[in-house]
Design goal:
Immunoglobulin-like; mainly beta; elongated; 9 strands; single chain; two-stranded antiparallel ribbon; about 130 residues
Length: about 130
């Protein structure tokens, strides 16, 4: 009984489908999003459209140990890091950008970066707790 995946990053306006794959009823609600999708049984699903950018905690009021996050971004350029913290954002046109990093146990960070055509941008980012 857990949300899979634990973290999802989606573009603004995305409709996310929450499927109950367990043999128990579940609920999905978010304090930040102020939505509660109610309780539904095994094999059923509920959907929610994310209309504002931000990080949304996903909880189940029937199973308090269940926790996940949906991060909604207003850009087509994003990535989720792997288990070692590495990530790649492909297809970013040359230019200056604000890189924003989100982590559930950190305040995150923001950094100005410049993408140059034909030159990979390598960064070492350290998040403080």
């Amino acid at each position: 009984m857990k949300f899979l995946p634990h973290l999802s990053v989606v573009p603004l306006g995305t409709r996310v489908r929450f499927l109950n794959s367990d043999k128990e009823p579940h609920n999905v609600y978010s304090p930040e999003g102020r939505y509660n999708l109610g309780v539904w049984g095994p094999g059923d699903a509920r959907e929610h459209t994310f209309a504002q950018a931000g990080a949304y905690t996903q909880l189940c009021n029937l199973h308090p140990d269940m926790l996940a996050f949906v991060v909604v971004v207003d850009t087509p350029y994003f990535a989720v890091s792997d288990a070692k913290g590495a990530f790649v954002v492909r297809g970013v046109p040359p230019g200056k950008y604000k890189l924003a990093v989100w982590h559930e146990k950190s305040d995150g960070l923001e950094r100005e970066v410049e993408v140059v055509a034909g030159k990979p941008l390598k960064l070492e980012l350290v998040l403080a707790k």
